[in-house]
Amino acid sequence: MIRDYYNRHALDEKLRGAPRPAGVNHLAIGHRQAVAMVLAHAGEEDTVQQVLSSATEFTVRFSAPGEWLVVSESDTSEGLQRRIDAFCAGRAYVVDQSEARVLFRLSGPSTHRILAKGVGLDLHPAAFATGASANALCGHIAVNLARTGDDTFELIAPRSFAESLFDDLMAMGREYDLTAAFAG
Amino acid sequence: MASLITCPHCGVRPKEEFSIRGDASLVRPAPTASDEAWHDYVYVRANPRGRTLEHWQHVAGCRRFLVVERDTFTHEVHSVTDGAVFARENGR
């Protein structure tokens, strides 16, 4: 059987049924965002960080020293890559990850309690404020976790772990009636 | 086992995010060193009771190699340094 992986979302099979209306606690799966990994050249880490954080066209997620994930809701993957290249002017390597990562957006009043079941990070706003991001384990899966609002978190996971992470998140959120659907 | 490690890049994290990569106090012998020196470096390990230096890799976080100084008896963690910084400070 030949499958066209390129045109198929990793969670198509999980979310195939008729969508349930979004509940109070909702898990939206990103469908069209572009994700790129940026690795600063040795010695250029601080410059690249300043340049990236001054941009308003995309959001930057901390991954490791000199390494970031850049997420854009409006650009195509090629467009994002060109945009970052223009910003960094040869000070960083940019690798497109749009097809390799899946973005999960958790929102609702119980999100921090849902995440507490799988993430060993202190998610109190004083320790992990809006805009903060970090690589962390969610269950047994390494994800990039970011707080995008008081009650909104985004998880970026490798595509091959997406189904597993989806099942984990739905189990973690079952007690809070977590619903899931592709983002509109 | 020390259960919380303060990664210099990521903050306080549970030990499940890390992978232990062995003794960090060993110094690689010169390529022309004797067979005994190389044998000791590659195979012989102490099993100390007390303070030890170990390489820990933050595999689920920043993926950096860290040098963790911890006590194998009390489970206390004394210091955590980035591997590159440790190497520079010790002239390796």
What does this 3D model show about the protein?
The complex is a heterodimer of chains A (184) and B (92). By secondary structure, chain A is of the alpha+beta class. Helix content of chain A is 22%, strand content 33%. Chain A has 2 domains: 24-31 and 100-182, Gyrase A, domain 2; 34-96, Alpha-Beta Plaits, CATH 3.30.70. Chain A has 4 helices and 10 strands, in the order ββαββαββαβββαβ. In chain A, strand 3 and strand 4 (67-72) form a beta hairpin. In chain B, 18% of the residues are buried. Chain B has one domain: Folate-binding superfamily (Folate-binding fold, 2-Layer Sandwich). The mean pLDDT of chain B is 92. Chain B starts with a strand and ends with a helix. The chains are: A alpha+beta (184), B alpha+beta (92). Chains A and B meet through strand 7 of A and strand 2 of B.
Query: What kind of assembly state do the chains in view correspond to?
Result: heterodimer
Indicate the CATH topology of chain B: Folate-binding fold
CATH superfamily of the largest domain in chain A: Probable tRNA modification gtpase trme, domain 1
Strand order, sheet with most strands of chain B: 3-4-5-6
Q: What is the percent of helical residues of chain B? A: 10-25%
CATH topology of the largest domain in chain A: Gyrase A, domain 2
Largest sheet of chain B: 4 strands, antiparallel
By CATH, the superfamily of chain B comes out as Folate-binding superfamily
Corresponding CATH architecture of the largest domain in chain A:
2-Layer Sandwich
What order do the strands of the largest sheet of chain A run in, or round the barrel if closed? 7-8-9-6-1-10
